[in-house]
Amino acid sequence: MTDMFSGCRVLLVSTNYAPEHAGIAPYATLTAEHLAASGADVDVLTGMPHYPGWRVHADYRGRWRMVESRGGVRVHRRRSFVPTRQTALLRAAYEAGFLAHGSIRPPAARPDLVLSQMPTLAGGVIGGRIARRHRVPHVVVVQDLMSAAAAQSGIRGGGRVASVVAGVESRILRTAALIGVVHESFVDRVTAMGVPGSRVRVVPNWSHVTPPTGDRRAVRARLGWRDEEFVLLHAGNMGLKQGLEILVETARIAHRDTPRLRIVLMGDGSQRRHLEHLAADLPNLHFLPPAAHADFPDVLAAADLLALTQRASVGDMSLPSKLTSYFASGRPTVASVASQGGTAQEVRRSGAGVLVRAEDPVALHGSVVELMRDPDRSAALGARGPAYVRERLSLEAGLGRITAVVSEALAHSAREPEARPASDAR
């Protein structure tokens, strides 16, 4: 590893970080560790680990604040309120808690650059404040668009607060030196907030899992999946925007019409108990806890088909992080999502899956049955995923894009040390 950032101090702000291994945490963690390995002195300001279960991990309960070292990075943790349910009011309390505690005694050393990971507004606000205080560039990587999420995700009360969220979000982005978005479908919405297109960079997420290596039949046997069963697996967060009720209804149809189809939901999230209640009478739908990080690729590869679902209202607010892992597994994806959103665009571009109308369990069941009956087509779709990862979603390519954005912001700051975006003066 080079020392291209030697002598540079970077502060990364992200509510999620390792040991969380789902959602944005792997990207925040690998980014910070990559910058540290490239010579930077890196601090991270984050919360106590709690995702995707929305419960603070056992090893961190009762802690108010702490500093730990992980992968050559100093990690400053702040406790905040973690809701077990998702409503607009509880989400606001979650954001407010991190904003309040994260703003008290942040890492004291002056950074040369602040890098904020958003989907949380609080992290963007804190990062912007620290950057302005020290007159250093603020780079924001947008994983989810929070104003769109409030309107589209189905969170109770979200529509009423969407305009307030949009105002805060646009302020963060307009005052940032550079903005990275994880998919090109975000660009128009970001520029509509008043951000010049010249400050927006597309920085796609990468596949952060290793290729599967386990014996597929042995993994299936360990999981209790019989050889004759066709397993449709959803792996990851069980939240509102996923609209996983469609898989419960698909299982209901399959129980009557397709007895060898087993549907498995693996993971955790705010909607898991609700889904377990809905599926209590379905012997062909099963729940698994999140797989250990090392086992995750082998579990994905042990399935026959991977499910990705979103509510019909979810368009350009996010790109599911699980998609990169799905592609790497070599299994095909069936995506029940809005046809014009970024998720659908990515599935089409990869050629590694099929698209189905969102929130249509009859159509989803029909597509699954078609792939069950055509194993050659299923295998061909699955084989395109790893090829797409190698071409576009490799770790080296993803971290290279982040490196380029950080380098650009630092170079611009060195040329114009007093320059700030015009909107910062408002």
From TrEMBL:
Q: Does the keyword Signal apply?
A: no
- Gene Ontology biological-process annotations: carbohydrate derivative biosynthetic process
Q: Which SUPFAM superfamilies match?
A: UDP-Glycosyltransferase/glycogen phosphorylase
Question: Which InterPro entries does the record cross-reference, listed alphabetically?
Answer: Glyco_trans_4-like_N (IPR028098), Glycosyltransferase_grp1 (IPR050194)
* CDD domains in the cross-refs: GT4_WbuB-like
An MF annotation (GO) of this entry = hexosyltransferase activity
Which superkingdom does the taxonomy of this entry point to? Answer: Bacteria
Keyword entries, A-Z = Glycosyltransferase, Transferase
**Glycosyltransferase subfamily 4-like N-terminal domain: residues covered:** 23-206
UniProt-recorded name of the protein: Glycosyl transferase
Name its species. Streptomyces viridochromogenes
Q: What is the lineage of its organism?
A: Bacteria, Bacillati, Actinomycetota, Actinomycetes, Kitasatosporales
